[in-house]
Amino acid sequence: MRGLASLGRTVTDENDASTASEDPGHEAPASGSEVALPYYAGLWLLLLASTWPLLRTYQELGSGWRSKLSYVLLLTTFFAAALVLDSWARRPWQAWIMAGVSAFGALYCLASALFMFITASPLSAGLAQLGVAGSPLDSLRASELGWLAWAIAASFPLAFVLGGLLRRKLPAPRLGRGRVLGPVILALLLAGLCLEQVQARTTRATYFLRASYLPVYWQLFSSEVPPEVIAVARPRSSAQREVELGAIGPARNPKHVLIVGLESVRPDAIRPAHTPHLARLRAGSLQFSEARSVSIYTALSWVSILQDRPAVSALEDLKAPATGQPAWPLAVLAKAGYRNHLAFSGNLIWGDEAIRRLAGDEAEGAAGSAVYRLAYHPDNHTLARHLADDAVTETLVRWIEECDPSQPNLFLLQLDSTHWNYHFPPEGALEEGYPEEVDPRSLASQPELDRVHKRYVNAVHHVDRKVGQALEVLERRGMLPDTVVVVFSDHGEGFEVGRAGHFALCGESQRIPLFFKLPGHAAAERSDAVDQRQVWPTLVEYLQIPGVAPSTFQSASVWREPRREHAFSPAIHWADLQTPRGTIRFQVSLEPGRVSLQPLAHVDEAGQVAGELGPLLDSFNWRETLHELNRSAGSGQ
Fold this sequence. Notes:
The chain starts with a helix and ends in an 8-residue tail after the last helix. Helix content is about 45%, strand content about 15%. It contains 22 helices and 16 strands. It is elongated, with a radius of gyration of 29 Å. Mean pLDDT is about 85; it is low at about 1-30, about 55-65 and about 130-145.
């Protein structure tokens, strides 16, 4: 301990002697140098004590005790280096800056650990996500974590100042000679950190996942497998849209269409006891037991579905200004003679230009416009979600009652009650013993999450009642037998410790219900891999819309052969490629016009390492598969 405590010195013994000789009345200081050990050791212990409970959540996800030991070694090396540099400072302001930087770094590490605990993503990914709505200020206002983001941002400069003040106030004892011993101990710590990572890299399949689970982890090595770079084409130009839409003709099988977009609904949440309307619909539909979401993040999923763009590049699409052109699938349906009615409960939170991204600059309700009617609740985050669902369902019911049944109509109903914190009217609850509103991501106890799941069941039941209201008015007007009903969720939802909500890439967040009730088609169940991108090409094929080419949409109809056996689900920084042989976890790097996908590990449904990556990569052409699943529609890519 004495060796570690004597890391470096503030002034050399020669300086002390020189000062004494210049001032005859000056009393020579005690031998040794001032070392701010109480400050840096206290900061290290405080950070370790505050982050350790947060790291425990990821014990099941592949980080393990050895990864945590490496993390402790990294923190120790950081503060030892800060202590050495502090003890070498020759001016008070230099020591102040070093102390402030250390406090700043400790706070960033704690904030990243907290954010990772809540969202299963690094803080850097979270900052990118807060910008997903186009304007960071819009995002912070809309985000349920906005207050936390503001508090953390304001605390960083405060931590810098207070760190310097605290460093001056705490005692800095003079310890023995340590100019040589301090750097030696620091070098040993650094060497230990490097050697552990060298050994972990060569013997453990979990090494490349550490940055996914450990906050601000300094990972020395990257994967030897070169990443695959996918070019992302720009959206269609006005001239290209005009040419392609010019080939579209009226639907030859002009059935009405009802699309129900659910929020955070798992396939196993649809049960006759909880969701009688949805369960009855699914039983009579073409359903897919292995359906996966295009993204586990709500905004990215809906952008991919409505804009028909690859989800992995949706963040870049949202940063670009709106073109004023309506969403491509809606434009295709409108050109085929459909009147499109869109009722969004509240997840239309893509910044100030969200409406322009959907409807373009066309006048709502104008003849031939892509969006005939649009209703949404931008104040959803201040209005209880079930009340927003009630309002938009009431609007959609009125539209169905007023519509011309001789004209093909498309109705899209997006419902939001099942997003955390799971809203429902108490008088309509099926499950008792549920807690008050709580964010499931903040819970680290399985019994607590089990109680929260009761809220979720009640919210799913409320959503089912809204779907029932839409079906009832279609039936009352005699339109239901001639209506295609499509039901899907934007992503799934987890209720396991470490995988709660829909921020962790895992089976719970990726699996979705997806089924088509098609007049004239018998019910069937299939197990091939499908996702929501296939809704539009499946619809246009069933409705027999002429002029639709293979490049019209980014994906193919569910009837196209060969049937798909792969699915791709990205978050912002991570993505999974599911195959019959296993799942490949990728690190995602976004650059203007392209996306880089770096293979990291072979994982299972829970995100745990399932085996060596190399044999899985060698078992099929994964690079070609990535390009096929992330093809930009209309670009030939």
